[in-house]
């Protein structure tokens, strides 16, 4: 995948996933690239599908931007277009824009007020923020030192 394609992918607002589409994406994210047949067989225990159904689901997921495919011989090998976490981040950004006026703080406060996040989770978030701040400060310091030497 090219850098241009990846940059474009990060700015695309993906369409919502239906129930079966979510199951298929969960399988692809967990197991990696897969054929339609392998996907159908793996999901048969929890969600039996005809061959034509799984192929339609995979095609729709590709049209929505969640999957890409390569062709090996006459077989399509489907892969996730982006990592699960990146897709989740874009979905949350969409929620923040639509429901919280663009304020991530409002989202987090709402999650705290409604007991979605507990103290331990908030402490982990605070540590992650502090770690990111330290990394950014170190990066800026190195850039500044490099510029001073030039």
Straight-line N-to-C gap: 36 Å
- Main β-sheet: number of strands, strand sense, barrel status? 2 strands, antiparallel
**CATH homologous superfamily (4th level) name of the largest domain:** Winged helix-like DNA-binding domain superfamily/Winged helix DNA-binding domain
Helical stretch count? 7
- Sheet-strand content, in percent, reads 5-15%
Q: Your description of this structure?
A:
With 150 residues, this protein is mainly α. It folds into two domains: 3-82, Arc Repressor Mutant, subunit A; 119-150. It is 67% helix and 8% strand. It has helices at 3-11, 19-31, 36-43, 51-63, 84-99, 104-113, 119-149; strands at 67-72, 75-80. The longest helix is centred in the last third of the chain and has 31 residues, at 119-149.
